[in-house]
């Protein structure tokens, strides 16, 4: 694990505002006390594939109280009936319909706005992220980190499966940002990250594709002098369903924030 020095930041008005209740889908969390951690799970027609992910979050974490926001774009999404069935045994599950606009980026942003906890973790619904790392990520956030990355490329981290070119570019981007820009994480492109509401309230999200959001928020937190930390994690390529990641479509968006991170080495105070 690694942790950057603490900042002194002035208070700023919030940028993200909580949305209205989730159209009766959330299992009735209105009026309840705030959870310790909100977990945002963007989904797109995952169907039964989402079950191991959601069960894993609940069974492999001790952080409580917890809310798990499963964010979908449309009511016909095949994930919706599966989550409704699970809510009977897992009351922490809440369905939230994204009304900002379709796509993973807007689903995550909608989840950020709906989340009630002071810390918000993003994990994909395909089972690629290791839920066993959520508790250590939360503990680092409680200790003052504003971004905690699940890192495949630090000591103890691993990546299992996935296209060779994608793995090579991802590893190269993460390690070079760490060594050249001084950003204290080794994995720049993973979206398995935990954010403080303090950070989310302070920045305006500029990403317009989706999967570059993790590197944007990490670079912005670092440039603001906020604490950035990481824990080793194992990422596994999905074994069911189809990935919606398109390397050549999103690569220019990653490069934008990669460049901002490198330039920040010379402008950060």
Quickly describe the structure.
The chain has an 8-stranded mixed beta sheet with strand order 1-9-6-8-5-2-3-4, with helices on both faces. It has a two-stranded parallel ribbon with strand order 7-10. The longest helix is centred in the last third of the chain and has 21 residues, at 247-267.
Portion of residues within helices: 25-40%
Tally of domains: 1
**What's the CATH H-level homologous superfamily?**
Spore Coat Polysaccharide Biosynthesis Protein SpsA, Chain A
Radius of gyration: 17 Å
Anisotropy-based shape: globular
Number of strands: 10
N-to-C SSE series? EEHEHEHEHEEHEHHEEH
What CATH calls the topology is Spore Coat Polysaccharide Biosynthesis Protein SpsA, Chain A
Distance between the termini: 24 Å
Count of helices?
8
CATH architecture descriptor text: Alpha-Beta Complex
What about the largest sheet?
8 strands, mixed
Residue fraction in strands:
15-25%
Q: Which strands sit side by side, in order, in the main sheet? A: 1-9-6-8-5-2-3-4
**CATH C-level category:** Alpha Beta
Average predicted local confidence, pLDDT: 83
Estimated structural class: alpha/beta
Unreliable spans = 5-24
């Amino acid at each position: 694990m690694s942790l950057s020095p603490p900042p002194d930041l002035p208070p700023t008005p919030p940028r993200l505002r909580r949305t209205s209740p989730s159209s009766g889908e959330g299992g009735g969390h209105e009026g309840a006390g705030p959870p310790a951690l909100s977990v945002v799970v963007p989904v797109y027609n995952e169907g039964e594939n989402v079950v191991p992910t959601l069960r894993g979050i609940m069974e492999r974490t001790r952080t409580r109280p917890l809310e798990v926001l499963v964010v979908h774009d449309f009511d016909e999404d095949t994930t919706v009936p599966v989550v409704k069935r699970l809510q009977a045994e897992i009351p922490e599950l809440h369905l939230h319909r994204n009304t900002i606009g379709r796509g993973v980026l807007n689903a995550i942003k909608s989840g950020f706005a709906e989340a009630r906890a002071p810390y918000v973790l993003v994990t994909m619904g395909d089972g690629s992220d290791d839920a066993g790392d959520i508790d250590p990520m939360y503990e680092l956030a409680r200790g003052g980190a504003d971004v905690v990355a699940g890192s495949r490329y630090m000591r103890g981290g691993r990546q299992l499966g996935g296209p060779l070119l994608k793995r090579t570019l991802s590893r190269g981007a993460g390690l070079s940002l760490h060594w050249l820009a001084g950003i204290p994480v080794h994995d720049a492109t993973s979206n398995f990250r935990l954010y403080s509401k303090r950070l989310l309230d302070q920045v305006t999200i500029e990403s317009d594709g989706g999967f570059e959001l993790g590197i944007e928020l990490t670079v912005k937190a670092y440039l603001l002098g906020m604490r950035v930390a990481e824990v080793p994690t194992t990422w596994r390529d999905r074994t069911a369903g189809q990935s919606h990641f398109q390397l050549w479509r999103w690569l220019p968006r990653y490069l934008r924030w990669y460049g901002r991170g490198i330039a920040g080495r010379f402008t950060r105070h």
